[in-house]
Amino acid sequence: MRKLLICLATAILVVSLGIWCLGQELAENQVLKVASPDDDITGLDPFDFLGTSAEPMSRAIYEGLVRFNYGYVAVDKMEPALAESWEVSNDGLVWTFYLREGVQFHHGYGEFTAEDAKFSIDRLVEGNSRHAGDYATVAEIVVIDPYTLEFLLSEPNPFFLFTVGNFHGGSVVSKKAVEELGEGFRSMPVGTGPFEFKEWLSKEKVVLEGFDDYWRGEPILEGIEFIFMPDVNTRTLALESGQVDTATDVPDEEEWVQNMRDKGVIVDALGYDIPLLCHFNMTVEPLNDIRVRQALCYAISREDFVLFHGPSICKPQVSVLPPGMYASITEGIPPYEYDLEKARQLLSDAGYPNGFDLGTALSSVRDLYLDPLEIIQAQWAEIGVTFEINAVAHTEYHALIRQDLSPIVVYPGPRPTPDMIFTQYIHSDAIVGKETAITNFSHYGDVDCDGDGTIDSVDEYIELARSEVNTERQKALYAIAQLQTSLDVPVYPLRVLAAVQARQTWVDLGHVPYEGSYINGYAYTELTKILKH
Amino acid sequence: MLTYTVRRIAMVPIVLAIVVTIVFFAMRMVPGGPAYALLGSYASAEAVRQLEMELGLDRPIWEQYLTFLGDLVRGDLGTSIYNGRPVGPELMRAFPFTGALCLATIIWGVALGVPLGALTAIRRNSLWDYVGRVVSLVGLTVPPFYLAILLIVAFSLKLRIFPMIGGGELANPAEFLYHLFLPSLTLGIVMSAFVSRTVRAALLEVLSTDYVRTARSKGLREGTVLAKHAMRTALIPTVAFLGVYMTLLLGGAVVIEVVFSRTGWGRILVNAMKQRDYPVLQAGLMLFSAVVVAVNLIVDVIYTYIDPRIKYS
Amino acid sequence: MWRALVKNRTSVVGLVLTLILILIAVFAPFIAPRDPLKQSIRNKNEPPSASYLLGTDRFGRDVLSRIIHASRVSIGIGFGAAFLGAAVGTIVGAFGTYLGGRTEAVMIRAIDVMMSFPTLLLCLLVLTVLGSGLTRVMLAIAIAFIPRFARLSRGPTLALRNIEYVEAARAVGASHLRIAVRHILPNIVGPISVMLVMWIASAIRIEATLSFLGFGVSPPTPTWGNMIQEGFRAITYTPRLALIPGFALFLAVLGFNLLGDGLRDVFDPKLRI
Question: Cβ contacts (< 8 Å) between B260 and chain A: which residues?
């Protein structure tokens, strides 16, 4: 018997060792391994909305007429990309771009010309893409000659350059490839960027190869593998053990960041752009009473949020526009600082001396949504305001909150411009349930917030600011909008998070990482390389 | 025997039809359709409406069902709503990964479980017995996902021996096995617990029977007695329970594939549920139950050949 | 009977363990030193100290209190799911088998269909359709258990179906229902109960896995499963957050398994699974 056991144990050991030895034979090369947080991507066509995992891929495959500058993302710091230079008319209605010559598309689809640039945006509008709204002010795009392109706007748009950058709809696609491949373009993208698409193994990985004819120069990397790793713990462990080179969508906690740094992994905390707004559904009693909302604000401690994530990656957010964003102000905005006494007093004034029950608040199962709601729940319990949390599947969450089914909505959706933030969260057209609904969960703009008998709204300021060319006037308009919003308290801004990305010390990006969290993940360029390690 | 097998096979399409129909209607009653999975936090009412129209989800449910059946008859398993790719080839591509995982798990389960069970049976009530039974309890009590993380931390992180991500490529068998090691070991430990208990119980029964005692009294060496008679009888219930183990296995495979980021049917199905990807879920569940039913049937047939005591009426 | 039970070492250990756990679960609000939901973010991720015996989690909640309260939920779900599944499954299985003929055939097919899904997958499917939350998790696990108990109850029912006193009762004119309830059910409760204990252990484990996959009980209600899930992210720098609830889970599942083993050894040595 004993002999049998020894034989068996030896056999197992030998087999394991053998497999391990075989594994060690695998070669090392300049292929970057990126841990992607989703199970899979939905496709790589810029026509569609691309999620967290697909955006870094898109940035490696496509380019825009201009590109965001590394460092601080601002519309006045955009750099030339497919366009060498540009000019805008005095009335702000005509933008002329002088395009680069000799830029090649991937997979032999020929040279980039103004036709491709025009096609890329026209197809968004004609096909009613999710990004079509960005080009609402573009009346016509005119091809002057193969390397000159003109945009005729119906009204001035100070943020116009954003829409032709390497983000969302601005990605330039090959007209020939789209016409040839049709639906197939989604899984066989053709752009002008430093990396060509090679293959997409569903739920496994997306493989890109260095594009030798890239106009800025042949990339140093041979290729990039975006590996799908949906479990956040796996991404953490893979980083620590060096089995991936970079990772995005990592835990937003300082302990995690510190641990990684201790283990020799570089963690970049970029920008402070992931805002968090707590929307009060003002059609739900007693949230329609401004005193109640103010009380709830006083009962929230922003400091706790900052402590929860850690002061090195989290700052309080006082205004609807996150700090650091263009036109964001803090002066004059009532902060509603943590004050339980005041909160209880206000509740009492409103007729709820012992608090009240709000029913059930919806949340997604994702931490980004669930954690803040848990914190708020604990904080409001101190003044007797209670609610249950129902954490549902992410897709279900987005469906249900748009059906007005939650008394409060804690929503982190970052947006790059003040106009997008106000239009989607604060403008009355965006109220959930309407034809034009986007993400206004509070019903602000349609209700009487302060009990004075009139409907409160900042719609006109939003609309005026949208097309105001003069920056001073525009900032003033946004300032008024922010002030009014903070006085009416349809939403309570909580905190802004830095976008946390991690990479190994041997990853040299070749540039300073983007300071902007709505640009998910790192940008991989022709200069990115893997150092010896 | 033959008529029984034929009848069992004939049941398969009916079973599948019921399963798929139930899933079809149930999923469409759940809030949060696939449009939200595709649009995420950018979902505006208009975008959702348009997307649902494009996907054909705004048509009456019976019409959708009939279209689905029509496609199915023509061999078209549908297209994933989430990534726009045909479901059939995707499932086929992932099948070897799950299949290999199950096969390797069974090998581990038997390789670890049989000797463990034998040890605890033969050295009954000794220290070996208790140690062995405690070890097998680990497999029974610790949930597979927990065991997986512990093994990853130990072998992949601290010792850097085996990888923790992915399944490798079929084209490269060495890499494939390399990535298979830890995941299959995890599930194998769990399975070995069940196997060892079955083997132990069966062996205990056999070892006390008359003919074994007679064989011993005749002077045959312990080894021969064991190998020839006892083990063969003890292995019969192990095979019988393979069918039961299969369902346990596949449940475990789901979690293991998520933790190790391996492609596989388990992971595909779980994601389809989360993202409300109806075509993938329908086709996936259908193929899944087909495979399970088939495997069960094969196991049953093998079992009747091994154990002549069983008769199916 | 009790003497036999006590003599068996396995069952004693199991019995003691499960009794302790049940007591903890029942008296949780009195045993736990603090409110398991109260946050103190200032004190997040603190190691064990005099004021927080097992330290705090990432919201600054007391881990010890949460573990104790989690026992309520996890064991409660375990019991609830197992009993519900057993009750429905046994009744359906016994009744169907007893009635025989076409009813029995249909029932067998239905059982086969449901059994062709792994328990976990079936639970996930049910939870996807019904939504999550404590009662739904219990329901989902119970539903997955029903066919298994139905099949389990077939054996004993088959044995009893043709026994003389049943035939005599039929001759006298007793209805099927009466016979099932008075003669069949009481006799199969025995063997089923033995299995029930093991299934409670199984249910507790399944709940943990469901929480891990994101289908479990909503926070902030603590279950061992979602505590493990939350703790995993810190496994390399604050391992106790995942190890402690993992250990609690291990003890509970172990206890019920050992008890089940012991019961089986005493009552029905032939059931060797």
Answer: 234
CATH 1.10.1040.10 for domain B94-306, yes or no, is no
pTM of the model: 0.86
Cα–Cα nearest to B302, from B236, B248, B256: B236
A437 and B93 within 8 Å at the Cβ level: the answer is no
Q: Nearest by CB to C121, which of B143, B241, B269?
A: B269
In a domain, C141, yes or no: yes
How many structural domains compose chain A?
A: 2
Total of domains in chain C: 1
Show which subunits contact C, needing at least 3 CB pairs below 8 angstroms.
A, B
Instruction: Return the CATH number at A446.
Output: 3.10.105.10
Q: Distance (Å, rounded) from C-alpha A333 to C-alpha A329?
A: 8
Rounded to two decimals, the ipTM of the complex is 0.84
Out of B141, B248, B255, the one facing C209 most closely (by C-beta) is: B255
- Residue A232 belongs to domain with CATH number: 3.40.190.10
Q: Which of A36, A39, A200 to mutate to test the interface with B (most CBs of B within 10 A)?
A: A39
pLDDT digits (tens, 9 = 90+) for A247-296: 988 888 899 999 999 999 999 887 777 889 999 999 998 999 999 999 99
User: Which range has the worst mean pLDDT, A293-297, A322-326, B97-101, C97-101?
Assistant: C97-101
User: Chain B partners of A1 at a C-beta cutoff of 8 Å?
Assistant: 118-119, 122, 222-223, 226
**Interchain CB distance below 8 Å, A400 and B31:** yes
